[in-house]
Amino acid sequence: MDYPPNELAERLTELEIKSSYAEDLLEQLNMTIYRQQQQIDSLILQVTQLKQQSQNAGQEGAARNLRDELPPHY
């Protein structure tokens, strides 16, 4: 296909604009994935710590009575 020079320039400009938007979107998506991975890593660490605390509590003595866990105002 042969396009007149001004139409070819317009098409090229439109493609450059679309490419720029696509690059911006890709960068935003990459940052979103990066932040989500940080949150996942943090949550995994918290779960691991909670498991350790639970195991340590179980090893410290006999099974706890839930009444022992009630706040003093009950």
Task: Summarize the structure in words.
The structure is a single chain. This protein is an all-alpha fold and 74 residues long. It has a domain at 5-53. 81% of the residues lie in helices and 0% in strands. The protein contains two helices and no strands. It has helices at 5-60, 66-69. The longest helix has 56 residues, at 5-60. It is rod-shaped and about 85 Å long. It starts with a helix and ends in a 5-residue tail after the last helix. The mean pLDDT is 88.
SSE topology string: HH
3D shape: rod-shaped
Broad structural category: mainly alpha
Average pLDDT across residues?
88
Which ranges are low-confidence, i.e. pLDDT below 50, for 5 or more consecutive residues?
A: none
Main beta-sheet annotation: none
- DSSP strand (E) fraction? under 5%
Distance between the termini: 84 Å
Q: Indicate the percent of residues in helices.
A: over 70%
Number of strands: 0
Query: What does the radius of gyration come to?
Result: 29 Å
Count of discrete alpha- or pi-helical segments spanning 4 or more residues: 2
Describe the structure in brief.
The chain has 74 residues and is mainly α. It has two helices and no strands. This is Protein SlyX.
SSE blueprint:
Blueprint (H helix, E strand, L loop, with lengths): L4 H56 L5 H4 L5
Protein name: Protein SlyX
InterPro entries: SlyX (IPR007236)
Pfam families: SlyX
